[in-house]
Write a structure and sequence with these properties.
20 strands, 494 residues, alpha+beta, four-stranded mixed sheet, six-stranded antiparallel sheet, 17% strand
């Protein structure tokens, strides 16, 4: 049986300062993160000692040095919020990670909460800039100067699952899933074939099939072996090929369907080889096929469209779950997956309320027809960017969402709760509640640990190697009984 679902996303945002001729992305990111005020957690460090970014899932350590900032830089670049989410500077981008959750509805709620966090920080940071300057944030994946930044998905799977099986069965799925979760892009980059418009913002930037890198020679399958949990039991699959979605249905399918396919791989339920010939080339070609009708060669000799590849995965998933109990969210993901694939096969433009690349294409084509301009007009590229603006009053997606022109998955109330409260059913509850209750006594945090300063005692690190422990059910009464961090540490170490 596959493990219970534990998942989350890490979203890198585009950043610039309008009106600043000397724009420095790193200092602007630091300003943004520190402008966000939630609770007095300025002295909490991110515990880099617990990280192992050079471990490779193929069984070796990659040569290189792990970057560990000094204490002052650490504090300036990192915040961990009361909802259990890290908000931090990653290279030259602000990044927000959702807390660990157990279902894709919660992923969406915490991602939307992250957008709200970014916008609140953006407003606060802009007030600190010189007159005439405005800090801008975009939830997209390309700066149109040849640089790409990601939306990474993380899924906890069993260590016993052979990594070779993951590569074999997940690669064709990831290459083709962009047809329902691409966020759309005007033009191409990174030496890709020129085009007017394509499905995915990220497809141009993948250059190899399997590797550890995330910034250069990006692989379709990333091999980072950093589980943030018990290494003997778990593997965290780090998926870097996805676009940053605005449409909730696109996120729902991107993360929800991937979790389903991974469950099949864990349980040995993939009964056919869907491997594509030259997947690196195919990921770019599929992104430029707006009809979704071009066929591609499989290693087994057949030819399939991207939709047909996805339909074969759907067929295997339906067979797998036909004899098993299915929770309501998984059942709904399967139903939506089937419906979306059917409409993609018939006419993708039917999905202009659900799938980002279709929604954006409809908006841009409408503008082009009204203004009688072509794809090369500079305002078309500006519309593409404006779709991803996090400002509620400026972002094009936020405008059409307010008009009721796109389908929602979560309610505004779910997003409001996710902004303030950690999930109940993972260790993120313990992390978030400790930050809310004992902010001045926390020395450092990581995904799988919290370190407390309890008076004159040495710093005590509490390990959290099990992602499904530390839930509300496990620790709420304990936290209620401990007025101070010292009492909590004593109770946990007795």
């Amino acid at each position: 049986m596959p493990l219970p679902s534990v998942m989350g996303t890490e979203i890198e945002y585009g950043i610039t300062v309008q009106g600043d001729p000397d724009f420095d992305p790193i200092s602007s990111c630091v300003l943004l993160v520190n402008a966000y005020q939630e609770v007095d957690v300025a002295k909490i460090l991110w515990d880099y000692d617990q990280e192992s970014p050079l471990a490779d899932a193929r069984g070796f350590q990659v040569e290189g040095e792990k970057y560990t900032p000094n204490q002052q830089e650490n504090i300036a670049r990192n915040k961990t919020l009361m909802n259990g989410s890290p908000f931090y500077v990653d290279h030259a981008h602000p990044e927000y990670s959702t807390p660990e959750v157990t279902n894709v509805r919660d992923v969406i709620a915490y991602e939307r909460a992250g957008e709200r966090t970014m916008e609140a920080a953006r407003r606060a940071a802009t007030l600190l800039l010189p007159p005439g300057q405005t800090l801008l944030i975009h939830k997209n994946n390309s700066d149109r100067k040849g640089n790409s930044y990601g939306n990474h998905e993380n899924f906890l799977i069993a260590r016993r699952t052979p990594f070779k099986d993951i590569v074999t069965h997940l690669t064709p799925f990831l290459v083709t899933r962009q047809i329902f979760c691409g966020s759309g892009k005007v033009g191409s980059e990174n030496r890709a074939t020129p085009c007017d418009y394509q499905i995915s913002q990220r497809a141009d930037f993948f250059e190899t099939e399997v590797a550890l890198d995330t910034m250069v020679k990006r692989p379709i399958i990333n091999t980072r072996d950093e589980p943030h949990a018990d290494r003997e039991k778990y593997r965290r699959l780090h998926v870097i090929v996805g676009d940053s979605n605005q449409c909730e249905v696109s996120t729902y399918l991107r993360v929800g369907v991937t979790a389903i396919v991974l469950a099949l791989i864990e349980d040995g339920a993939i009964d056919r080889d869907m491997s594509l010939v030259d997947p690196v080339r195919r990921i770019r070609e599929i992104s430029q096929d707006l009809t979704c009708k071009r066929t591609y060669a499989l290693d087994r000799g057949a030819r399939r469209t991207a939709v047909q590849v996805q339909q074969e995965y759907l067929e295997m998933a339906l067979a797998y779950f036909s004899s098993r109990a299915v929770d309501p969210v998984t059942k709904d993901v399967l139903t939506r997956w089937e419906s979306v694939l059917a409409r993609l096969a018939e006419d993708p433009m039917q999905l202009d309320r659900e799938v980002d690349w279709v929604v954006k294409q409809r908006l841009i084509r409408g503008f082009m027809e009204r203004k009688r301009v072509d794809w090369q007009h500079p305002q078309v590229s500006m519309l593409d960017l404006q779709y991803h603006d996090v400002r509620p009053d400026k972002g094009l997606y936020h405008l059409i969402e307010r008009r009721g022109e796109v389908d929602r998955i979560v309610t505004p109330e779910e997003v409001e709760r996710a902004l303030k409260v950690p999930p109940d059913d993972t260790r993120a509850y313990f992390r978030g509640e400790c930050i809310r209750r004992y902010p001045e006594s926390i020395f450092g945090v990581n995904w799988d640990s919290i370190s407390f300063e309890a008076g004159d005692e040495p710093v005590k690190r509490i390990l959290m190697n099990e992602p499904l422990k530390g839930t509300r059910r496990h620790v709420e009464q304990l936290l209620d009984d401990c007025e101070t961090a010292a009492e909590l540490v004593e109770a946990l170490t007795a």
